[in-house]
Task: inverse folding
């Protein structure tokens, strides 16, 4: 035991900017949810981008889209979570390992709840589509990996925020493209899923830090 506090999973220098981004993302999720509540057809923005009611990608890109889609399915997502947790533990970052599990759970749980609240559908009444859970999951994982890298590398506010946002953008764009290309979601579903991850992941990281700090403080008091 060195007595040194465990590194925060949400670096203090990033908290103000990510807090602002999370707030704006949450507002976007709510706005899109209200706009498309109960709808079963693509909106004007969706039609402008692409009509997502039939497969719009052919081999070899279809294989890429299917591979990305698999990573958001139960088997693929479980594999990524196990790899993420194992990597965090190998790097001796138990807080980050907790964040991987908690962050994924909150992101997927939030999208599931919102789907039932919003009631937007695609390809029939039984297929709830807003927001995209695949996109939220993949974006949340990328955000958590970027937060871990920011802490490990000791990046400052500008560089750290840039890395986190770039990771979220790349992951969200990749999974979002796959979902729209395969006709599983409308483009605005993807945007909603991306914003959901941006909204809940920093908040979850902050809560993990708070709970870990309180547990550590309580342990120190007991040893005195």
Result:
């Amino acid at each position: 035991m060195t007595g040194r506090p465990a590194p925060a999973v949400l670096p203090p220098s990033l908290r103000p900017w990510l807090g602002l981004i999370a707030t704006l993302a949450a507002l976007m999720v709510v706005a899109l949810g209200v706009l498309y509540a109960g709808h079963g057809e693509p909106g004007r923005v969706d039609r402008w981008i692409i009509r997502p009611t039939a497969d719009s990608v052919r081999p070899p890109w279809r294989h890429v889209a299917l591979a990305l889609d698999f990573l958001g399915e139960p088997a693929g997502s479980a594999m990524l979570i196990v790899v993420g947790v194992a990597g965090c533990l190998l790097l001796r970052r138990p807080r980050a390992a907790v964040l991987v599990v908690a962050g994924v759970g909150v992101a997927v749980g939030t999208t599931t709840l919102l789907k039932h609240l919003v009631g937007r559908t695609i390809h029939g009444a039984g297929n709830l589509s807003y927001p995209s859970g695949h996109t939220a999951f993949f974006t949340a994982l990328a955000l958590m990996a970027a937060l871990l890298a920011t802490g490990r590398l000791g990046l400052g506010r500008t560089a750290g925020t840039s890395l986190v946002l770039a990771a979220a953008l790349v992951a969200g764009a990749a999974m979002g493209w796959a979902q729209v290309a395969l006709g599983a979601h409308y483009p605005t579903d993807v945007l909603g899923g991306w914003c959901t991850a941006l909204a809940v992941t920093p908040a979850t990281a902050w809560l993990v830090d708070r709970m870990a700090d309180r547990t550590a403080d309580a342990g120190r008091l007991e040893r005195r």
